[in-house]
Amino acid sequence: MTAAGVPFKIDWQTKSKLRGPGEQSVGDLLKQLRDRLAPKAQGISITYVDERGMRKLNREHRGINSSTDILSFPSHPGKGEFPHLGDLVICLPHAEKMAKKLGVSRRREVETLLVHGFLHLCGHDHEKDKGEMMALQGELERDLLETEPLPMSLRRGRKPGSKLKTLKDGRRVVVTGRAAVALTLRDKTRRKKVQARAKEAKAAVKAPTEAKRRPGRPRKAVPAAPAIPVRRTVRKRSPRPRTGVIA
To answer: Number of C-alpha atoms within 13 angstroms, CB side, residue 8?
Structure first.
């Protein structure tokens, strides 16, 4: 039961080798989101998949042959039908990669994805609005999780050519224009230096190593041994006996 005495059922499914947070970890977050955004909803489905499963769903429903972090499938129940809010599908390997990149736990990354997907189920769309959805997502993360929203929210709906830049204090911000171009050139220069060092190290391993002589007195020249004359023994052939046979 949640606020106002309305029940809220959460169906969990796992189709991934990785383990995702369940009812005990993020159940309260989902119920708080329901109370604030969709108080009449009584159910939601959460499914964890791997990269292959997410790529298949993304290709079938969006025509994009690649994986993504989360997909939202809103439900539109008719009159008298069970008020199911919709389905959220989360790619755990994708979430794991982003969590490592940002230096947070897998659970923390999934929490952000749940907030993001829940907003989509409620009709919000960051690709069509003017930043209202992402602003609301940040507000929900601060209020319900009591922490700052993950920087990964900045990458959604970014302008073409923009880049993520890591500041000295560890924060990640989106840069555009000349700053993005300079960041791209710096990354290319770093990659070239790393490749050059790896090439030099590989060549050094293949090159024959010369034996190093310890420091000390120089070696004395050894005189060559005198050549010993070789005597040849000449054997005299005995005369053949003459016979009356002509060959």
So the answer is: 24
Over residues 45-85, the pLDDT tens digits come to 999 999 999 999 999 998 888 889 999 999 988 888 999 99
Classify strands 172-175 and 163-166 as parallel, antiparallel or unpaired: antiparallel
Phi/psi zone of residue 5: left (φ > 0), alpha (ψ -120 to 50 degrees), beta?
Answer: left
Candidates 160, 152, 154; CA nearest to 181 is 160
CATH of domain 3-152: 3.40.390.30
For residue 57, count other CB atoms closer than 10 A to its CB.
Answer: 18
| Cα→Cα distances 82→12, 194, 199, Å | 18, 58, 64
Indicate if the alpha-carbon torsion angle 139, 140, 141, 144 is positive or negative: positive
Q: Partners of 166 in the beta sheet?
A: 172
Domain boundaries, the chain: 3-152, 158-203
Structure token pair of residue 37: 């955004």
